[in-house]
Design goal:
The chain is built from 6 helices and 15 strands. By secondary structure, the protein is an alpha+beta fold. Among the domains are: 46-59 and 190-289, Efflux pump adaptor protein, beta barrel domain (Elongation Factor Tu (Ef-tu), domain 3, Beta Barrel); 95-155, Helix hairpin bin (Helix Hairpins), CATH 1.10.287. A 6-stranded antiparallel beta barrel has the order 1-10-13-12-11-14. Strand 11 (211-216) and strand 12 (221-230) form a beta hairpin. Helix 1 (4-14) runs antiparallel to helix 2 (19-36) and helix 4 runs antiparallel to helix 5. The radius of gyration is 35 Å and the shape is elongated.
Length: 292
């Protein structure tokens, strides 16, 4: 049986109307039908409009490099190993720097004693003012060299700036590295953040403090999350904005790089929020809800 839309087009054709008029009539008719009786597909599309991809990132991620050149003497950490703040990550063979430090220390002691003797002789009018100033300058120069070597010695051991894990090891023990060579890629294991790129028109209802649900694919679990920061600018080309969120529970199984879907269908919708609580125990197969 021909549809009402086809009769509508035939009527326009018989009356002598142009093709564009007929097409415009079809569009109006279809829009009217869609508004009058939206189907399940329309409701599902509206629901999907508030779902978007997200990824867990580490707030502290850094590539450790050495400020000195030398041979790696101590490197026990491998990819995936955990460490605490202050733990030694890499140790360099600093025997050469130790020898230079001892030399600088001896030079500093000698220059300081020379200054003391010159000052004593100056008090007895046995030497001139110029010799006194020169001895003081040499003492300061030797002290500066000693401090320089002491600082260099402190850079022979690279310690962890935060609690975390090794994401990548780029060198091996006994390898000689130049100054500035990347050694380890480390990432913080706590305070992980969710990174999202959302349409800019979401700002009409999305605010700092808004709660939502995030379903991660790697462990098939759903977590409660909250918006913590909004981006500083909107991309004028894509009309999107970056936002940052955090998972409310402290979950040790989470690691950077996990990804999934952020569901904002309950944000600003009291009815949906109530339905979400009632359906919390009936999650999709394979998905587990982590209690808030």
């Amino acid at each position: 049986m021909p549809s009402k839309t086809m009769h509508f087009i035939s009527g326009f054709s018989r009356s002598g109307c142009g093709v564009r008029s007929a097409l415009a009539a079809v569009v109006i008719a279809l829009n009217t039908q869609a508004l009058a009786a939206p189907g399940e597909g329309t409701a599902k599309a509206a629901q999907d409009e508030r779902r978007i991809r997200t990824q867990l990132i580490s707030p502290d991620a850094v590539v450790i490099s050495s400020e000195l050149g030398g041979k790696i003497a101590d490197l026990n950490l491998r990819e995936g190993d955990a460490f605490k703040r202050g733990d030694k990550l890499v140790g360099l063979d600093c025997s050469l720097y130790e020898a230079q430090f001892k030399k600088a220390q001896a030079s500093s002691d000698s220059a300081r004693k020379l200054q003391q003797v010159t000052a004593r002789m100056a008090s007895l009018n046995a030497t001139g003012e110029l010799e006194l100033e020169q001895s003081a300058a040499k003492a300061r120069e030797a002290e500066a060299e000693l401090n320089y070597m002491k600082t260099s010695m402190g850079k022979c051991q690279l310690t962890a700036p935060f609690d975390g894990r090794v994401a990548r090891r780029m060198v091996a023990p006994h390898q000689f590295v130049a100054a500035g060579t990347p050694l380890l890629d480390i990432q913080s294991s706590s305070g992980l953040e969710l990174q999202l790129i959302v349409p800019s028109h979401w700002l009409s209802w999305l605010k700092v403090g808004s709660n939502f649900a995030v379903s991660l694919e790697e462990n098939a679990k759903t977590y409660p999350a909250q918006i913590t920061r909004l981006g500083a600018r909107i991309d004028p080309v894509s009309q999107t904005i970056a936002i940052t969120a955090r998972i409310l529970n402290d979950n040790q199984e989470l690691i950077p790089g996990m990804s999934g879907w952020a569901d904002f269908n309950t944000v600003g919708n009291p009815v949906a929020q109530s339905e979400q609580k009632n359906e919390a125990t009936s999650q999709a197969p394979g998905m587990k809800l982590v209690n808030q």
